[in-house]
């Protein structure tokens, strides 16, 4: 098991300025039929699959394209190379911002973009629509991952879903009693755990505060934690500035979070299921819950570069990584729910999909997946502007002080 989804921060202002036109339909769950409704550059999807070019250049999260060099037992790339004739060259990226920057160089064919990068790549014209007919295994992808605001625009898909995970509430069972059921345990300024609360270190964490306010202060009118007008945004930022007094540590390194929970320096805060599992394996007295307000989460999408020099190999890779066996391998190694519905039968740990709620669509209905905040309100409003990601980045610096 390995994961490396570190701090996703800073900005891509040029891309965000391109996000124009009208908003999409109301989408309280972070995704709506037709996806986000702005007007991207006019680019066409590839019509047919041609001969392999001999190589494919990928930008990926660590653990997404393993070839046995890190661990001889972990390898789903070598077989792909043998079958496709495409040599895989992988550039590991540590942040979404790095992925956006690398895609702009035109040196890469595909990227495993998270939701906080997807719309930026689409708006800038760096990602091209995909022809799902050229990806046979797409038909087996869970419907809950298709046609969403972070991977689809005006009913046009811009990628192939890879997997998903929720940002859960982890807590020390010995210190936090009774077991929490609400995010209030981290957002209440009178929290008894002052100094031992932890939070994810990224501007996208503002959405966690917005989600909490969406449930606890309905008068603010928040419908989507990634679509905040100025008043809603200011309320979310104010809550996080208030929370800052109780924060012991903001985390972006999962090993540090595990260490903090083992030592007792942190006793409650946002986490991922894979971190919870790893902490338990190291005998930390922790558990986790999806709180009653729901949670934010992440869903990664393989996108093809508009400047891809090896598009045929890129499409072959997209189909391979979402095929049942490979998707099962990467989901289990990285620690996430697979995208392919047939992958669950192929994981080494037969409880993997149950642990990560892969087949539980009711669970995911309460997860609001990361989506790039843009000026056009993606909750359906057309009479106001929402606060774009550039402002989220600026505010995050102020929040942390």
Describe the structure.
With 401 residues, the protein is an alpha/beta fold. It folds into two domains: 13-164 and 298-369, Periplasmic binding protein-like II (D-Maltodextrin-Binding Protein, domain 2), CATH 3.40.190.10; 166-296 and 375-400, Periplasmic binding protein-like II (D-Maltodextrin-Binding Protein, domain 2). The chain contains 14 helices and 14 strands. Strands 1, 2, 3, 4, 7, 8, 9, 10, 11, 12, 13 and 14 form a twelve-stranded mixed β-sheet that branches. It has a two-stranded antiparallel sheet with strand order 5-6. Helix 3 (96-104) packs parallel to helix 4, helix 7 runs parallel beside helix 14 and helix 8 packs across helix 9 (273-281).
How would you summarize the topology of this molecule?
Layout: H1 13-17, E1 55-60, H2 78-84, E2 87-92, H3 96-104, E3 110-113, H4 115-123, E4 127-128, E5 152-153, E6 156-157, E7 160-172, H5 184-187, E8 197-200, H6 206-216, H7 230-243, E9 247-251, H8 254-263, E10 268-272, H9 273-281, E11 286-289, E12 295-305, H10 311-321, H11 324-334, E13 337-338, H12 352-355, H13 361-364, E14 367-369, H14 389-400
Parallel strand pairs: 1-2, 1-3, 8-9, 8-10, 12-14
Antiparallel strand pairs: 3-12, 4-12, 5-6, 7-10, 7-11, 7-12, 7-13
Helix pairs in contact: 3-4, 6-7, 7-14, 8-9
The helical percent reads 25-40%
Largest sheet: 12 strands, mixed
Low-confidence stretches: 1-33
Shape type: globular
Mean pLDDT: 90
Q: What is the CATH T-level topology of the largest domain?
A: D-Maltodextrin-Binding Protein, domain 2
Q: How many beta-strand runs?
A: 14
End-to-end C-alpha gap: 34 Å
CATH architecture of the largest domain: 3-Layer(aba) Sandwich
